[in-house]
Amino acid sequence: MTVKVLLLDDEELVRGGLRMILESDPGIEVVAEAADGTNVLDLVAAHRPDVVLTDIQMPRVDGLEVTGRVAALPDGPAVVVLTTFDLDEYVHAALRRGAAGFLVKDIAPNDLLAAIHVVAGGDAMISPRITKRLLGEFANGGAKPGALKRLAALTPRELEVAVAVGHGLANAAIAESLRLSESTVKVHIGRVLTKLDAANRTQVAIVVHDAELV
């Protein structure tokens, strides 16, 4: 199936370049674009994208606000945030608001295409360039009692799945490591998301890292 993408960036030249890269993949279609997130909910309603690819820094309604608005939708599209700098001050806030991906703009075209497909499939994707540093920041100061308390609500098997998500494993790899079927893994992940009140796998990973379990 074709992955439909809504593209948001205030620079027309950047949007054009991203659209060219995305549509070089026959499995991806850019269904709409805009210079900021002012009308993002209307665009989502009109075009039903699978993924919203948004710049973090835009006039009027920026990528952080876009993330919050879209993540609040029932069965809304996944949000992938783009940034020019790997230490963007909004990284943590975007992930906590529900972004399913966070990528730097100098990402290789093939990696961008792969990330769109990964996120559309329900997984999270953070640029490898910032993952180690980002998660290291979440772990600073030792295990956080709040994270440990949230994880205490999980069954032993659900905790194993959550830790695997924290390691960045996709469903197939989790199924193989825990000797489960992929369908069973999906069920466990759904329960983990509900019990942790997490919007996506990235937020699960943050809780697990806060608890220093990875």
UniProtKB/TrEMBL annotation:
Pfam families: GerE (PF00196), Response_reg (PF00072). It comes from the Bacteria. The keyword Protease does not apply. GO terms for molecular function: DNA binding. Residues 147-212 form the HTH luxR-type domain. Residues 4-120 form the Response regulatory domain. The modification 4-aspartylphosphate is found at D55. GO terms for biological process: phosphorelay signal transduction system; regulation of DNA-templated transcription. Gene3D superfamilies: 3.40.50.2300. Keywords: DNA-binding, Phosphoprotein, Transcription, Transcription regulation. SUPFAM superfamilies: C-terminal effector domain of the bipartite response regulators, CheY-like. The keyword Cytoplasm does not apply. Signal peptide: none annotated. InterPro entries: CheY-like_superfamily (IPR011006), NreC/VraR/RcsB-like_REC (IPR058245), Sig_transdc_resp-reg_C-effctor (IPR016032), Sig_transdc_resp-reg_receiver (IPR001789), Tscrpt_reg_LuxR_C (IPR000792), WalR-like (IPR039420). This is LuxR family two component transcriptional regulator. It comes from Umezawaea tangerina.
